[in-house]
Amino acid sequence: MSFLIYTLYNIMSVNLMKEHLIFNILFKWKYQIASLKAWLSFEKDIKGINSITYVARDADKDWIFGAKVRRLSKFSKLNAKPYFHAKLRNLPQTDAYFFIFPNYFCRAIRHNPFILNRKNIVMYTHQHWTNSYSKTHISWCLNKAHKVICLNSITKKQLIEVGVKKEKIEVIHIASSPETFYPHERKSGAVGFCCAYSDRKNPELIFNIIKNMPEKNFYIIGVLWENFDKYEELSSLANFTYINNADYAEYPKLYNKIDTFISASFLEGGPVPLLEAMLSNCFPIASKTGFCNDIIDHGVNGFLFDAHTNYEEVIEFIRQADLIQTNTRETVLEHSWGNCSQKIDSLFLKD
Q1: For position 2, what pLDDT does the model report?
Q2: In a 3-state reduction of DSSP, which class is residue 98?
Q3: pLDDT at 1 (0 to 100)
Q4: SS3 for 207?
């Protein structure tokens, strides 16, 4: 046992050393140059905040990141506008900036050094380390931000563990639109998932739930499920419907096909679809990750389970959900884009 612990410790040490080498050799000097350029501009820090740019990539326009920046900027009480650019260059000159993803902030510093003289708020959803954007790299950049928004208390703890300063972190649960996602009466008994295929989404559990509950109709709203190694068997099941690559504007109608919504992921920042489904009065059954623990009162407005559970437990929760009449929409109305945007405004305005 001690040999195993020793081996794991050595592997972790080597990986950490590799992270530091990649960051220091390939990236850190770029940030040092950016910092020097920002300093040489002799630009005074902006005190009053009136204008904000909400930043995302061109590729995000028709995806959930695009929807987030448009809605958050729309509901801001300040002069806020979304900005999309493939390489995050040529940011417009405004008093402050909001970045929907930490990697975007990192890249934007390198291409737009002047933002280091402005207030920057960065949203961090969940861990997604790569060789280029390691925890060493991301934490270094996040400490350059004015504030870092994470979506739940678990993520806040993880950020502190990788070196982000505690005083920079704020927990704000991500929002959705009560006007867009309207309620329906639960009577069909259908069950749904909304996620792209990846190992993080717990596809084996999803498959086993659908396969072992033939009396229920199941929907998956998502993309890339054709990459699942059991997709052929899954798609052949008579009780399964795959809604592939649906336009986001169709989601409210799609949620109204569903009475019970399941989020089975091993790791999430939100998940946003859970909130959308609850606003549509779907009854949620969710793994204990992201903000699920924060917005679901187990047995009252939803059920919670460990992501490593077996499918029998989730199937039993589905059966119990059919008997519960709770209006789940009423329990999450506070998590609106308006409320979320105004909380972000207050962070920009705070010294």
Answers
A1: 58
A2: strand
A3: 53
A4: helix
Angle at 23 between CA 290 and CA 118, to 5 degrees: 70
Using DSSP, state whether 254 is helix, strand or coil.
helix
Mean pLDDT of the chain: 92
Report the alpha-carbon angle 192-198-203, nearest 5: 50
Residue 8 has what pLDDT?
41
Mean pLDDT across 172-183 = 90
The more confident residue out of 202 and 293 is 202
Q: Span 155-175, mean pLDDT?
A: 93
- CB within 8 Å of 39: residues ≥ 6 apart: none
- Lookup result for tokens 């195993």: 4
Q: Which of helix, strand or coil describes residue 270?
A: coil
The DSSP result for 104-148, as a single string, is HHHHHHHH-GGGGGSEEEEEE-S----SSS-HHHHHHHHTTSSEE
Of 182, 154, 171, 173, which is closest to residue 335 (Cα–Cα)? 173
H/E stretch holding 261: strand 260-263
pLDDT above 90 coverage of the chain, percent: 81
Q: How confident is the model at residue 12, as a pLDDT?
A: 46
Specify whether the CB–CB gap between 58 and 85 falls below 8 A: yes
Strands 119-124 and 51-56: unpaired
Sheet holding 260-263, edge to edge: 240-244, 218-222, 191-194, 260-263, 283-287, 303-305
Q: What is the Cα–Cα distance from 139 to 125, expressed in whole angstroms?
A: 14
Domains annotated on the chain, with CATH:
2-175+338-349 (3.40.50), 191-331 (3.40.50.2000)
